[in-house]
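Notebook, bench 3.
Goal today: get a predicted structure for Pyrroloquinoline-quinone binding quinoprotein from Kribbella rubisoli so we can plan the truncation constructs. The sequence was checked against the plasmid map this morning, with no discrepancies at the termini. Length recorded as 514 residues. Pasting the sequence as submitted so the record is complete.
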Amino acid sequence: MKKAVLAVVTGAAVVAAALVPSGPAVQAAETAGRAHTAPPGFGSALSSVEQKSWQTNASVNAVAVAGNLVFAGGLFTRVRPPGKARGVGDAARKYFVVLNRTTGVPTRFAPQVNGPVWSVATSPDGRWVVIGGDFTVVDGVPRSRVAMFDVATGKLVSGWDPVVNFRVAALKITAKTVYLGGSFGQVDKMARSRLAAVTLSTGTLLPWSPDANDDVHAIEVSTDGDRVFVGGGFTRIDGRYDHALAMLNAKTGALLSMRASGAIPAKTDDCNSQVKDLEVQGNKVFAANAGSGIGCYDGVLAADATTGKLIWQSHCLGATEAIKAIGNWLYKGSHAHDCSSDGGFPDKTGMHHLLVYSTITGKLGPWFPNTDAGGETLVGPLAFASGGNDLWAGGDFTEVNGLPQEGLTRFSSAPGGAAPVRPAAPKVASARANKVTISFPTVLDRDNLTLTYLLYRGSTRIGSWSRTSNSWTKPTVTTVTDGRLTSGQALSYHLEVSDGRNLQKSPTAKVKVR
């Protein structure tokens, strides 16, 4: 038998498909993020395979984690097991639920809250959880829009009772202080325009009062505790112009320079871009924007948490509601529909409600699970929380990855990830003597961009290629010539595609050598 010789043919069409503009940018993000060495099977810090969790009967607006507990607040009144329809096996949990972080099952910690919860935060030591919202009574006791619980006992903390006159939509807890943001104008009958601070130990109102002229949606604190970041729809704060994003002195409330806020367009009648979520990681602060108006800024930006200088900015269209940094990746909940300006998917490719960016480059990375936006507000994910190796997502969705799951879901770093799509049988032909031509296109993987393609003649591997693909560009086609074969031979070929852990095998294609 003649010795087989393998040649790879890369025609113009193949080269063009491999070099689409989005490919290198996205691939760069995956490479940058791998400095954080993800477990085999997926390319970012998390798998795109959702883990089981109980669900809700309406929107989840806020999520937080402390130890092995997950706290979720929202508009829901009942919770039920995964996979169940409304009313099947459900239990009462009105506006607030506490779940076991390992199992996703509700715990006995079940406070009675008489109004919607819009914000949840836990203390750095995990001992306390604070909720904010529209409620006025908790566990039969008056609590005006904010309340604190002892995590160990599940009991309302007596005596900790700041009186807030309107919605508390944002919370952040430090070692000694609880920062409040929202739509309120008074705390304990003292003027506090949409921002306030109370002591963690007693709930006593503090002098900190950097008044904002419009709603505050998010609050974060720098790693060293010296600066407070505020996001919302305001245009003035501490008596000075600052739109949507501000940095404040944590002790005095004085406005500090936040040059990155200049990347957010000024408010006009046609465009009002508001910061909906904030995240601090190390010396970076990330801001998530949602814009009202066609083409109004909906993206994510990263800034230096000390100087306020802009580091990078994405410009995807489709309001961003939630962000969470895990390792070198920033996970995003939105209804993104056009990321072409970031080298990603163009408009009219569907809604991409769950995405990830490299925290280093700001480029889209390899994580593409999805939800719908089937709830009342038609937005999708609204809130994220993490214990470091997982991501809890709350929102107004009713499906996750095409399967029923309402209001709440979770993803983890458990090894495995989504398997590549099973490849079709390779196309084979023998148009020239002693040679067979084999071609195959790339396939998709929901949490990897780059896959390994292994081609076999019978049980003999005759080639291996690394190829990158995504859902919004045409597949790359690889064409191979298997030469020095014997005329009249009946051969079979198949393809195997691997993401480093999961392997998918194609059907066999048969051919007779000319």
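Residues 5-25+419-512 form a domain with the Immunoglobulin-like fold (CATH 2.60.40.10). The longest strand covers residues 272-281.
Flagging this for group meeting.
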